[in-house]
């Protein structure tokens, strides 16, 4: 393997890069790259000295000036051009961490949601001309209800209430609550944090990686979150908060309300970690989404899903031809019996992680001999239908291109 970063023009020199996402913002069939940058920092010079209740600790994020996003356009020849200025992304200065690329407004063009730390979250809508506009304020996802910017770390998007539109989850600091925003098809989004029980379930946590997954294959997207504090002495300062924290597995009850089933999910969910990145993927190809998360100073934790095999499922591996090869940005609509399930192939998401690009649909107790039909809206705008898909197996679907 050869490091071609410099030759490709992707150095992002002088910036503290964090999350990133591949996505095809101009629909030319080649993946572009957006990079979240965190804060201005240098090991040269005198670092600020910070204390928390007279205890020496990390400086809070506001002690450092934020940075703008970086956007690289794919030149189709193995090189990239920095288009941060022409796209307008260089205007959004802040402490960015997590990013997810998905079509938020259902216009067929991939947008971006960016979680930022003590900076306003961004909802960057693709204007189809190489530029983006921030609708975070209009959508009411930029700040909390009191007008404060939360400590956004990880982010994901998916349809949790079955209306075919992507909703947004964001992990935050303790006592801020992790956020959940329902996409009602128009602005503003609805802050569903309390109604979903997410506020009470995450009150004391510092969240990082987060991802929607249907762990039990019942057709409803659940939510997994990994947590871990940043202040080593926090337990002596705040009795309700722990330094090492447990991961959460939250089951969707069917009405965008979550139930904490972590205690039933195995011994890994009863242990404490300094967890950060979380990635989801079916590593053993049994149709049940598995998980892996990273920890500060410790080995990563790989979790095999033993629950998803109890229900039916169908898996899709999309291969773009005119669209980008990984089909990032595709929208999949599956119809079976009286159900309609919508999923997307997203770029980025969670916190500093990348996921299995195959798409899994949980089908509940549907009989194994019951065929299903699938509609694919490819990233380049083409529509394709696949019928009579066999249940309990993966299907490789190549984009059909008409001349």
In short:
The chain is mostly beta strands.
Outline the structure in words:
- This protein is mainly β.
- Helix content is 5%, strand content 36%.
- It is built from five helices and 29 strands.
- It has helices at residues 5-8, 84-87, 136-139, 198-202, 234-237, and strands at 17-23, 32-37, 51-52, 55-56, 70-74, 80-82, 96-102, 111-116, 122-126, 132-134, 155-158, 167-170, 179-182, 190-191, 207-213, 222-227, 248-252, 258-260, 275-281, 290-295, 298-303, 312-319, 331-336, 339-344, 347-348, 359-364, 372-377, 383-389, 394-398.
- The longest helix is centred in the middle third of the chain and has 5 residues, at 198-202.
- The model has no long low-confidence stretch (mean pLDDT 94).
Fill in the keyword field for this structure.
5-stranded antiparallel β-sheet, mainly beta, globular, 4-stranded antiparallel β-sheet, 5 helices, 403 residues, single chain
Topology:
Blueprint: H1 5-8, E1 17-23, E2 32-37, E3 51-52, E4 55-56, E5 70-74, E6 80-82, H2 84-87, E7 96-102, E8 111-116, E9 122-126, E10 132-134, H3 136-139, E11 155-158, E12 167-170, E13 179-182, E14 190-191, H4 198-202, E15 207-213, E16 222-227, H5 234-237, E17 248-252, E18 258-260, E19 275-281, E20 290-295, E21 298-303, E22 312-319, E23 331-336, E24 339-344, E25 347-348, E26 359-364, E27 372-377, E28 383-389, E29 394-398
